[in-house]
Amino acid sequence: MSKVVMKINYYNLLSLFFTVMPLCSSAATSSATKLIPITATFVAPPCNVSFSDGSNTQEVNLGDITLGEKIHAPFSLKIECKYSRGSSINAGVVTGSLSVDDKRLIQMQDEMTGNVTPVYLSLKDSQSSAIEFNTISGADTGKPFCPGDSTRTCIITPVTTVRSGAGIVAGTKLTAAIIFTINNP
């Protein structure tokens, strides 16, 4: 059995070093690279709308409605924003019919039949300006109201109008439903 002995002297070691080194350095510089795009969309924290009691829904009982114009007890909307950017509210008609002549008036419905009545409902903001309604379908857009930059409370006053000779039967139960939507920029 023969033995193979390799003698490495100083010159062989240098030669081996210079042969292996370029291989190592080229391995280090020739790595594959991959580009991974990362995208994101900033979404501002939304403002929330609730009623004064903190609920998301509220039924407002207007009581008895008589001929002429009647101002009813106000209710409030609370707008809570987690940032300081402008926001406002829109009011949309869900039940009732937006007046063809005036987007500030809703014709209330007979609760039993669902028919529109000659009783009109309007809402006034804290500056006593009539709120312009929009339709849920988006065909008619109302003007936003209660603008602000932070958390606030908006006082809303319902007003009903029944013209004399309107032909509304006494005891008719009336209904209208309005949705309030926050506009965040």
From TrEMBL:
It comes from the Bacteria. Residues 1-27 form the signal peptide. Keywords: Signal. The keyword Cell division does not apply. The keyword Signal applies. This is Fimbrial protein. It comes from Citrobacter meridianamericanus.
